[in-house]
Amino acid sequence: MTTTSSAALTDGPVYRGSSLELVGLRMAYGDVDVLRGVDIAVPAGSTTCVIGPSGSGKSTMLRGVNRLHEPQGGDVLLDGESALQLKPDVLRRRIGLVFQHFNLFPDHTALENVALALRKVKGMSKADARELAAARLAEVGLAERAGHRPRDLSGGQQQRVAIARALALEPEVMLFDEVTSALDPELVKGVLTLMATLGQRGMTMVVVTHEMGFAGKAADQVVFMDEGKVVEAGDPAQLFSDPASPRLRRFLSEVL
Ligand SMILES: Nc1ncnc2c1ncn2[C@@H]1O[C@H](COP(=O)(O)OP(=O)(O)OP(=O)(O)O)[C@@H](O)[C@H]1O
Ligand SMILES: [Mg+2]
């Protein structure tokens, strides 16, 4: 196992995250309402962790934010501007999404995976894309692994390649959906450390996670969702130690 050295993470870029605001966001699959008016404000450069039971609509909410599934109503404001008015491909350049499953190209090296995204999305030349890809991989602590194919990388390293690929497109906001839940326990920490570092460097992040320790430490705000609504949101220490709603109290007693 290769761990991320803290040196690799200290001298990195400073990000300029944009604010993100969900206003009365409603989403459905067919006739089934899944989000029933979700309001979440994420100030620029801050981290919001979203927690809640399975099926509460957390993934659906992230899919609505970058319009992998079109919202039924409400709005998403990116830096104050309606994301629903932007072209989806422009929006997805500005808001990066990283999933539980990394979706790397198996026949390409880590470097090529990042460089291909840069060539396709940003239209960069091969040489420029490779140079920038190498820099991005170094920032996630993978300089020495750039020439490896996904199968020769650990799950945690593959997930960090996926994060480097998203960062290479210079998003203003990063969305993470359970990015550590498919990883072996010993690989989780490296990915969580990387996400915490991105937050410290100014990225705006929405992190759906079951990692309550991470939420407690890295989040500026924790949002608890249940049945397609925000039940409670606030400061992590306060929310975890003194939940106002019985539903959050019950949820925490099950997961903590
Ligand atoms: N493609 C789909 N078609 C129909 N219903 C869906 C689809 N995706 C999700 N749903 C339903 O929408 C609801 C919310 O699902 P969602 O995946 O957003 O929950 P979640 O909070 O992310 O859960 P988990 O913690 O298990 O990932 C669930 O009832 C789910 O069954
Ligand atoms: Mg989900």
From TrEMBL:
Places the protein is found: Cell membrane
Membrane topology qualifier: Peripheral membrane protein
One GO CC term, this protein: plasma membrane
Keyword Lipoprotein belongs to the record: no
Residue stretches making up the ABC transporter domain: 20-252
Alphabetically ordered keywords of this record: Amino-acid transport, ATP-binding, Cell membrane, Membrane, Nucleotide-binding, Transport
InterPro entries hit by this protein: AAA+_ATPase, ABC_ATPase_HisP-typ, ABC_transporter-like_ATP-bd, ABC_transporter-like_CS, MetN_ABC_transporter-like, P-loop_NTPase
GO molecular function, one term: ABC-type amino acid transporter activity
Keyword Lipoprotein on entry: no
Family as reported in the entry's similarity comment: Belongs to the ABC transporter superfamily.
Protein name as catalogued: Polar amino acid transport system ATP-binding protein
